[in-house]
């Protein structure tokens, strides 16, 4: 999938807020810079989970990080990128804890919903068909 610009989405669940951002990146330096900016923007966030897929020397390089969060949300974000055949993108979801524990499954679902929201918004910006 080719998307020119970043998109973002907010998902709320039991007072926790999940800020998802989808960034266009070309290499690991772009990934590192975007992660720094995201962490500065959401200083109150306890976790910044992320995943990326980039091309390096003609090979797809992918990585995910859970930032200490339960439920393997980084891996779930990577699956969203794979499913949508997105290469050259970084997805970051920052969670600001709302005081209510969501449980392992609830945390994973919230990160996934936030990530899917960012992808859907990006598709809408490009006029692509929305998936159900």
Structure description:
The chain has a five-stranded antiparallel sheet, with helices on both faces. The protein is 36% helix and 31% strand. It has a single domain (7-125), classed as Impact, N-terminal domain (Ribosomal Protein S5, domain 2, 2-Layer Sandwich), CATH 3.30.230.30. It has helices at residues 28-41, 73-83, 103-125, and strands at residues 7-13, 16-24, 47-56, 59-65, 89-96. The protein is built from three helices and five strands, in the order ββαββαβα. It has 132 residues and is α+β, with helices and mostly antiparallel strands.
Topology:
Blueprint: E1 7-13, E2 16-24, H1 28-41, E3 47-56, E4 59-65, H2 73-83, E5 89-96, H3 103-125
Helix pairs in contact: 2-3
Q: What's the number of extended β-strand segments?
A: 5
Q: Could you tell me the strand content as a percent range?
A: 25-35%
State the CATH architecture. 2-Layer Sandwich
Query: How many structurally independent domains?
Result: 1
Q: What is the overall number of helices?
A: 3
What fold name stands as the CATH topology? Ribosomal Protein S5, domain 2
Overview features:
132 residues, alpha+beta, five-stranded antiparallel β-sheet, 3 helices, globular, disordered N terminus
Short structural description:
With 132 residues, this protein is α+β, with helices and mostly antiparallel strands. The protein has 3 helices and 5 strands; from the N terminus they run ββαββαβα.
């Amino acid at each position: 999938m080719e998307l020119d610009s970043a998109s973002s989405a907010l998902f709320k669940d039991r007072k926790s807020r999940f800020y998802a951002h989808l960034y266009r990146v070309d290499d690991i330096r772009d990934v590192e810079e975007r992660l720094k900016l995201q962490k500065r923007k959401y200083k109150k966030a306890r976790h910044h989970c992320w995943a990326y897929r980039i091309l390096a020397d003609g090979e797809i390089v992918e990585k995910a990080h859970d930032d200490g969060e339960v439920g393997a949300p980084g891996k779930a974000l990577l699956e969203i990128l794979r499913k949508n055949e997105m290469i050259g993108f970084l997805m970051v979801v920052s969670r600001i804890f709302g005081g209510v524990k969501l449980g392992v499954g609830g945390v994973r679902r919230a990160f996934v919903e936030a990530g899917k929201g960012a992808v859907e918004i990006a598709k809408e910006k490009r006029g692509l068909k929305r998936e159900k």
